[in-house]
Amino acid sequence: MTINKLRFAPSPTGNLHIGNARTLILNYIYSKAIDGKLILRIDDTDTERSEEKYYQSILNDIDWLEIDIFDIKRQSEKTEKYQDIANRLIEQGKLYPCFETDEELNRARKLSLSRGQPPIYDRSALNLTEEQKNEYKSNGINPYWRFKLDREVVEWKDLIRDRQTIDCGSFSDPVLIRADGTFLYTLPSVVDDIDLEITHILRGEDHVSNTATQIQLFKTLNASIPDFGHHSLMVQKDGSRMSKRSGSLSLGEVRERGIEPITLINYCARIGTSDAVEAFQTTDELVKNYDLSKISRSPARFSVEELEVLNKKIIQNIPFERASDRLAQDGIKGENAEKFWNVIRTNINNIHEAKKWWDIVGDNPIGNNESVNKVVITAAKELLPEDPWNENTWSEWTGKVSNRTSLKGKELYLPLRIVLTGETSGPELATFILLLGKDKVQKRLDNYI
Q1: Distances (CA, A) of 324 to 330, 339, 362, 370
Q2: For residue 147, what is the domain's CATH number?
Q3: How does pLDDT run across 329-339, given as a tens digit for each residue?
Q4: Are the CB atoms for 199 and 135 separated by under 8 Å?
Q5: Is residue 421 domain-resident?
Q6: What mean pLDDT is reported for the chain?
Q7: Residue-number span of the structural domain to which 405 is assigned
Q8: pLDDT tens, residue by residue, 32-54
Q9: Closest by alpha carbon to 112, among 102, 124, 122, 126?
Q10: CA spacing 20 to 30 A to 68: which of 271, 365, 394, 440?
Q11: Between the CA of residue 195 and those of 36, 68, 189, 225, 424, what are the distances in Å?
Q12: Where does the pLDDT of residue 2 fall: very low under 50, low under 70, confident under 90, or very high at 90 and above?
């Protein structure tokens, strides 16, 4: 029985940004939808730009998102395997050495364009004799290596874009190995997909043009060809491209904003699709009826404001059991913690904001505000109900204060809110005063008289 396998393949050359996260999350949700396994493949063949700190950052981001990874592989550990495959391709005549400089290639491209011809490499290196190749090498010029494409039309049924065709006669033979012997993306990627028995590849549409080359490589190596799916890219709100270098919001910055992992998963799984973004509490709800064909061909525009609004909706429905550990980290614990959470969660944007209200409920003094209508406060103090208090205490108390002062609405409630909380907005006072209790309410009223 074939096990469905997908892979997420970031390069450790920077922190993951929102665009990367979307690809990761789409792979994760789809792997769950087809009962598959997700593998993390670290594309670290670029030794100059790859850094261990970014590798650790990727692991931290995935751990924060609570995404299950079946296995982790690093390309830097497989250089010998890639070289063995390259040698096989050289023996087959599918990889051939080239010696042109960048200047020579640029001149050739300009000449082709001036003649109204496509700037395709002319394969002149295939005509080099062994003597000429040795002369280049004796002069210290090492070859770079191109993959000899079959000049054919490659077709595949894309999981997202449906039928795709690419004419391999319309572009140059791709370079797979640099002159310094290091590998570019394509060869290690295909070798890994074969070794890991990857069955499905989900990635951004910027890789569509690579697919024909990779399909030919799979065929040349007598390997099964995975199912490919290319999703539209996520762009900034202004339409500009996301990248590590352009300052796109990193996952670390997302965490600092207090965004819940499930919020980001909800957002990335649904943005740019025909389905509305919803405030699901679990990934299982996203997996139900998951359909890649619902992903639009248009770019998905990221909005941090939309993300934060979604986060607030999710926070409002997080049960205490799921929030308790993080609340405890901010000192919010004890027998009243659950009651407190259920009162304030509808008025916070992220869990860390609960600490502010925990402090307000505590014994911390509330600052004096001379602009408060003390007529309201005097009446409130004189009419303060005796214990025990319940859910009707607030309405009964403020009703009496209203009758005494002839004030209603904001004129009545805002002074009381400021005196009791030090804030002009916040949780429903009918439930909040039950957290405070009569003694604290009495004390705060006294501070204004």
Answers
A1: 10, 12, 18, 38
A2: 3.90.800.10
A3: 999 999 999 99
A4: no
A5: yes
A6: 93
A7: 374-446
A8: 999 999 999 999 988 888 999 99
A9: 122
A10: 271
A11: 17, 21, 10, 12, 61
A12: confident
